[in-house]
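Repro:
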Amino acid sequence: MKKRLIGLVMVWAAGGVHAGTIYSADFSVAGQGCTHTSADGFSAASPVDGENWTLTYDSTSVSSDTTLNEFITVDGKMRVQDWGGEGTITSDTITITQGGTVNISGSGRGVGSDAFNYVGKEGITWFYKINDNDPVEVFLGETELGGTNVNSKTEVGYTFSGIEVNLNDQLRVGFAVNVDGADTGVEISSLTVDGTAAGVTSSGIDLRAFQTADGVYVEFVAYDVEADGSIRLALLDEVGKVAWEGLVDVAVGPQSFARFLVPGLELGRSYDFRVRDEVGKWWEAAGVTVQPFAAEMTGATLAGITLAFDSQPDRDYEIQWVAALGDTWQTVTNTTATGSQTSLGVPHPDPEGPCGFFRVQLK
């Protein structure tokens, strides 16, 4: 059985929950939106900002008459009554903070006694858009919203289910409402996005953090690398939000070594990390403690010394020597670690010399 990139899952930062509602359109503040008649014109220029959404429309293409034309929040709902054209509600941008899936749900009902004009596409168009991709849409007209009699127009919902999302995706959701004529309209009661975190794919994580002369390095081995691409490492703060991110490129092969110089880490402290592998899988490593990277001499003879040091499995290490600090380091031998501790005998390059210094260099 081949190993995959080590790790577990990460948490949603939005809302501070592992899974649940990460967006809900707020229609609780009455009077947000726009109204107009032919007498008073438009009460607001497009766009109009709501609590966490924006209404956009083209005032030159929206007809008006002597009755009140509404696209406005009333009693905790968004009412679109006798609007005379199309207006679009779009959520604030939702930044995805973890890979997984989302469900996007909306609910509304027809109001007024007149029938919708299906040919004119009167009704509700629910949509979502990820990054710069084309929007995904579904239209609900007279048939779906329930008859011509106001009393038969019951609440109707629609859900986009199981949409896959990745870290830092920019998601926007919303609906466009098109009504044209007196006593025709809809009321939108809800628009929500629920998230489900990516599940556990594997275990046995071996992510390590070492203090070296030039800073703290976080490193791990990715096995069975399946595609050219990048591996992303994120440092999480105390509330699970991303405090720092880094990328390394990997190539197709049985394994690849990922090594990141992470700023701000301190020796002896523990940190939480999140990893995205080269094929978009998400993993989590919590409580990683920064360790010193040092070699220890455990034995010495005239022929050489025995060195022991913490190591990363499958990584190559170079043992170097110098007679006096300030001289050029010379390579004595190389070794490939097979475990988390490596011990090896190193021949002395100059047995007759009065002194010398060894060091372990990660290749």
